[in-house]
User: Fold these one by one.
Assistant:
Number 1:
Amino acid sequence: MSPDLAEWRQLFLKQLDGKDLPHIEQFYANYSENQLFTIAAHELTHHSDLFEDEFDVERDDSIWFEEGMCEYLPRKLLLSPSEFNEITAIESELVKVFTEDYGMRSLDEFGSASYLGSLSSIMFDYWRSFLVVKELVEDQFDNDIQAVFEQYKRWHGDGRKMPLTVFFGVAEQ
């Protein structure tokens, strides 16, 4: 992980794959240190006891939940409401822009198909995962993060009998 803000800005601009999105380019050209801090916090969140899977162990299901939650929690806790809303709007638009290219795969495929493609292909699954977790926490569970994790742990404890997207009712997203 590099703390070089200029490198991160370039990386985020590269993920746009040359698409003409001037307001999104402007956002990433002015990416803040506060936003950069959420990336470091994302990585630290992986090592918390919130998740059932060991971070360094190969996983074949539910990666979208962990990655989305590792995006959501640092952003929700560290960004101002306007910064949080802005990154949410940017990534919502990016999902719409790239859905034609990558939208045919399920969130349950995060990690298998996503890492075989371009940077935008990889980021597409992060954007979607963040947005689905945001919907889970804020809409389905009325901002009760603990309740989301209780259900996640129940799914795990019951033997993961169905994909987590089906369990949470987000399979179509």
Number 2:
Amino acid sequence: MPLVEQWEVVMKQKNNFFNFPLNEIEKILELNSLKKSYATVIFKSIYQKNITSFLKIPEIKKENAKIINQIFTLKEWIKIKKSFVEKENGKITSIKFLVQIEENCFIENVLMNFNYGWSLCVSTQIGCNMGCKFCASTLNKKKRNLETFELVQQVLLVNKYLQKKFNQTIKNIVIMGIGEPFDNYENVINFLSIITSHFSISIPESKITVSTCGICDKIEKFATDASKINLAISFHAPNDKIRNTLMPINQKYNMQKLIKSIKKYQLLNKNKPVTIEYLLLKGINDDISNAKQLLTKLKGINFYINLISYNKNKEHNFLPSDNIELFKKFFEDNSIKVTIRLKRGKKINASCGQLRNKYEL
């Protein structure tokens, strides 16, 4: 989004500082006759030193800090409404947060505890319009996109929780929560720019994954806008017939278009591998013939496959498949790197949208 347009958006949010990537902070400071170099000082102070006021930044003269304080606000607009902890053998495996965005509007974050550290699942919209039949996020439809600052503050909010409770921080981020990230593309790109900056939270790009249901034009754009961020594609079907019944997006971007976009993404991005996400649903897409057909479809793509076991919920009638290990063996036998996503949050309504629906319906 051009600076002027974004400025108009942020004016509505009282110039929220967390809406701006570093380069745009620099431009705004210059427009106000302030040093461009103040931007990195401010970023380090707010994001790394947890300074909560521009007036408390020692490197900036008071008269200049007062001007900056008139331009931006550091107010935290979102808050944790409730948190739910899941344990296994006495160890915390996941924590789900119901996060209030505005009056009677909620999103969800899931914090997952792995051997390599804490991974946070970020939401990008209040609700979702993609209509995937197995997902609870779509039941209330999309109310609106989340602004950049609302994405950034999810990370800050959960990091603060982690530091207070365990003296730890987030190591990985997956943008797989409520909403379709590429349906909120510009805000997601700004968010990625902010959190990966060496002057802010500094999450390594290799530790971030964005998942899309298959918005083809944005997949191709992502190759140049965020080339070092990992990309995951929600496939969940071996052919158009099954995918049409599960994912309405396939009626606009069918599998032929989707595969073409992935190949173009890899052509633009040095053949960077993508993760193919595949949710196994009993009697729907879990026959071994489906695995064979999927492998044929993906010929010519550099990919990993992530098999997902379905978290049964009251919103839908789908059942978990018994064939997940069979699928895993098939792909391994065909020299494809395959993982099974660890089941986390079953006891705490961790499937996207389940918890939010309880409070909004």
Number 3:
Amino acid sequence: MEETVIKQSECPCGSLLPYVECCGVYHTQSRNAPTAETLMRSRYSAFVLQLGDYVLATWDKTTRPKTMDFADDQTVWTRLEILGCKKGLAKDEKGLVEFKAHYQLHDKEFILHELSRFVRRQGQWFYLDGTVKAIAKPKVETSLGLNAACACGSGKKFKRCCGKASHS
């Protein structure tokens, strides 16, 4: 997406605010996300916009992958639903955010349902890890191959990443 189009567009996180007034302020690192939910939304938008540096910078160093490569990623993220939050406010040190991220991959639609854990270190929120509750296929009955690249952009095979929970 061209930069001027992004600046004028509604934020991908679903807030209905312009991108530059919403997740854009976090992506430019002019501000830190004040809550775990805000960080979740900004990370989702970073996946939409393929901002690997931001995804890595907001991932806790204890669980962060070495790289984030979107070069071969064909995932098209279409919508984020926040289902609930537990803690994760400015005064908290930990938080949980449950969400569903809708996406398309190879002309098929999927929903990633995850419960993500966040930690706050020195006043800044970081994504720690998540438990995939389900990867649903709402409209097309097909499945990701276990050896296919994971749609989350981690660079791992599906079976070693988001597929862990679905075939355990």
